[in-house]
Write a structure and sequence with these properties.
Helix content is 27%, strand content 27%. The chain has a single domain (2-224), classed as Rossmann fold. Strand 7 (138-148) and strand 8 (152-159) form a beta hairpin. The protein is of the alpha/beta class and 249 residues long. Bound molecules: adenosine monophosphate.
């Protein structure tokens, strides 16, 4: 089966995110961007399926600005076979992304779409679920284990207080959690090979989707600064401070 892996370009997880002076969003100029860490886990999961003879082709898809092609190239260097880039310069909300992914799924007919459980920039945790709803497909979210059978997948989900295993009929959607695997680094020869792999480019209009945002961001602010801590002499002083200063007991 063909596996489709959406990969989002986000601010690198090591970067300290700064709010723009006019509070309209976060600073993106001259900031290091990388593939969303959960999407690296998705690419790794798809590649392991291919290596085990369970997947025939791995297609990486990214939606957004021209530089998303770098994110797709990273997936190609890890081992994905080809890429699809939907070029759009403005903001993209999960619903618009899900609608465009649905149009791509209708064309590509994959047996499985592996998304990250959330993008670390907007923390929405919506795209996979919306895509499953739009397609009417089974979904296994936050998975930490994936077993591939004939026409069926077993996905182990990380839920509050434990693990839940669900059987999904394919075609299906899964979203990856941190413990699913440890993504590989791309080797130099594979980085070179990736340069020759094809990336198809299209627009939201080609997919028949209006990408205009449905939400308006009113204001973005920094979290409150934490005050410095104090070292207390003993338990009595700690209890006194909790009771009389913090007023939490
Ligand atoms: P979110 O719902 O925004 O938290 O994103 C969840 C997942 O949807 C991500 O981990 C990606 O797999 C996928 N996704 C969201 N936005 C994009 C995008 N612009 N391009 C490619 N994949 C995306």
């Amino acid at each position: 089966m063909k596996v489709l892996v959406p990969v989002k370009r986000v601010i690198d997880y090591n970067v300290k995110v700064r709010v723009k002076a006019d509070q309209t969003g976060v600073e993106l100029a001259n900031v290091k961007m990388s593939m969303n860490p959960f999407d690296e886990i998705s690419v790794e999961a798809a590649l392991r399926m291919k290596e085990a003879g369970q997947a025939s082709e791995v297609v990486a898809v990214s939606l957004g600005v021209q530089q998303c092609q770098e994110t797709i190239r990273t997936a190609l260097a890890m081992g994905a076979d080809r890429g699809i880039h939907v070029l759009h310069d403005g903001e993209l909300e999960p619903l618009a992304v899900a609608k465009m992914l649905k149009a791509i799924v209708d064309k590509e007919e994959p047996g499985l779409v592996i998304l990250g459980k959330q993008a670390i920039d907007d923390d929405c945790n919506q795209t996979g679920q919306m895509l499953a709803a739009l397609l009417g497909w089974a979904q296994g979210t936050f998975i930490s284990r994936l077993e591939v059978g004939d026409g069926e997948l077993k996905a182990t989900r990380e839920v509050d207080g434990g693990l839940e295993t669900v059987a999904l009929k394919t075609p299906a959607i899964v979203t990856t959690d941190l413990r699913l695997n440890e993504p590989r680094y791309a080797s130099l020869p594979n980085i070179m090979k990736a340069k020759k792999k094809p990336i198809d480019q299209m627009s939201p209009a080609d997919l028949g989707v209006d990408p205009a945002p449905r939400l308006e961001t009113l204001k973005v602010v920094e979290p409150d600064k934490r005050e410095a801590g104090v070292i207390v002499a003993d338990v009595t002083e700690l209890v006194d401070k909790l009771r009389n200063e913090a007023k939490v007991i």
